[in-house]
Amino acid sequence: MERTLDDVVETLRKAQDLGKKCTLLIGAGCSVKAGIPTAEGFVRIIEREFPQAYKRAEEKNYSKCMAELSPGERRDLIARYVDSAKINWAHIAVAQLMKHGFIDRVLTTNFDPLLVRACALVGVFPAVYDFAASQLYKAAYIPEQAVLEDLMAMIFSWRWHSSLIVFHQTSYSNR
Questions:
Q1: Which residues on neighbouring strands pair with residue 155, listed in sequence order?
Q2: CB within 8 A of 17, min separation 6: which ones?
Q3: pTM for this model (two decimals)
Q4: What are the φ and ψ backbone dihedral angles of 163, each rounded to 5 degrees?
Q5: Residue 130 confidence class, pLDDT cut points 50, 70, 90
Q6: Mean pLDDT of the region 65-83
Q7: What is the three-class DSSP state of 127?
Q8: What CA–CA distance (Å, rounded) separates 11 from 3?
Q9: Which residues, 6 or more positions from 153, have their beta carbon under 8 angstroms from its beta carbon?
Q10: DSSP string for residues in 75-133
């Protein structure tokens, strides 16, 4: 049976009442609504704007196509979208959940700073960890109220120490 928003609200309230820490996983859905392309969208842009890089990519996926761009091309391509992106209601809602103690950590596959901006708007200043840039990752170093960026770089090596809520029909669990 599919969980409803009321089910999620009840779960968050119960966790807070019991003093449990909740971790939220977000991905491209938040950023797409802010104007940032999906991984597939970036592949299409690379195909159109950098046809030689696209042609060189062994596989036509995000990581392989991005790897064929120079560091400057990658930075400029991503910045073009991130710099003009606007926070949306999803970012604000997550920031409010953090502010009021319903969510302790946010794990995100997104590389944009939109959630951090939304947190600043509501007066929450979480620690931010970019796994792609970090060479010294240790789970014990991650404090409460943290935003963890580029999660895919480390997702398989992290052991969850708090509740994980995944908003999907049957893929939710406590770990």
A1: none
A2: none
A3: 0.71
A4: -70, 140
A5: low
A6: 94
A7: strand
A8: 11
A9: 131, 132
A10: HHHHHHHHTT----HHHHHHHHHHHTTS-SEEEES--SSHHHHHHHHTT---EEEETTT
